[in-house]
TrEMBL record:
UniProt-listed Enzyme Commission number(s): 2.4.1.-
Gene Ontology MF term list: galactoside 2-alpha-L-fucosyltransferase activity
Keywords of the record: Cell wall biogenesis/degradation, Glycoprotein, Glycosyltransferase, Golgi apparatus, Transferase
Protein species of origin: Turnera subulata
Pfam family, any one: XG_FTase
Localization (cell): Golgi apparatus, Golgi stack membrane
Keyword Glycosyltransferase attached: yes
The protein's name in its UniProt record: Fucosyltransferase
Record family assignment: Belongs to the glycosyltransferase 37 family.
């Protein structure tokens, strides 16, 4: 059924996962209002797993380093003599940045960057965030509806940056059919020297291989899943280097 194994989740997700009318309304209204007219759309999904120690400054620096390294957004013109507003031209392009996060600090930082200074090539950058709920609200249907809407909105972007270990992020890039740029996780000893790396597949990734076989009701041999399932090794990254399993990608 699927000669190209990389597209399995993309096709099944698009075919089987249908938002309710309420969620689809959230998606279409936001997309038509802020994203539809842009020439390019960049989705940024930032997930912080420990809300008590929200490292906003470190994560912001890592996000900016990834954007600069991969040239995902235009550089700012730091020339003080440059006009605050770039002169319009026929060839001027626009880029919409969609920020999906429980926190607004990353959206505010990027918005102020491109509001206070123009880009060197005159490209117009708009930064938008649908919601910032601060905490994950389990059991709240409206909160869940907003989350699903943002997953789909990320899936409508041309380029996606996601957080490692995030189900939210890998469902979004799977729906989009894109190989995302993955932000590496801080394990207490700081972020790796390389802020992000492009995944080697668009498929969602298991953080850990499943160990229970629901058909036989026995614990399964995870080695038998290779090469179909690979464990996400980022949790083992303790020395600020890419683990050997990630030489060709982030999964």
């Amino acid at each position: 059924m699927f000669p190209d194994k990389e597209t399995i989740f993309h096709h099944l997700g698009r075919y089987l996962l249908h938002p309710s009318n309420q969620v689809w309304g959230l998606i279409t209204r936001f997309y038509e209002s802020y994203l539809a007219k842009a020439d390019k759309r960049l989705g940024l999904q930032i997930r912080i797993f420990d809300p008590k120690a929200n490292p906003s400054k470190k994560v912001t620096d890592q996000l900016l380093a990834c954007i600069r390294q991969e040239k995902l957004l235009p550089q700012l013109d730091n020339n003080k003599t440059t006009l605050a507003v770039a002169s319009p031209s026929k060839n001027q392009t626009t880029k919409a940045v969609l920020v999906a996060s429980l926190y607004s600090v990353y959206y505010e930082y990027l918005k102020n960057m491109y509001w206070l200074k123009p880009s060197v090539d005159g490209e117009i950058v708009g930064v938008y965030q649908p919601s910032h709920e601060e905490i994950q609200q389990f059991g709240d249907n409206m909160h869940n509806a907003k989350a699903l809407a943002e997953i789909y909105l990320l899936g409508l972007c041309d380029v996606v940056v996601t957080s490692s270990w995030s189900t939210f992020g890998y469902v979004a890039h799977g729906l989009a059919g894109l190989r995302p740029w993955i932000l590496f996780m801080d394990h207490g000893d700081g972020f790796p020297d390389q802020p992000c790396k492009q995944a080697m597949t668009m498929e969602p990734c298991f953080q850990f291989p499943p160990t229970f076989d629901w058909l036989t009701h026995k614990v399964s041999d995870t080695a038998a899943f290779d090469p179909h399932v690979m464990a996400w090794r980022l949790a083992l990254n303790k020395r600020k280097r890419l683990p050997s399993a990630d030489k060709d990608g982030s999964l």
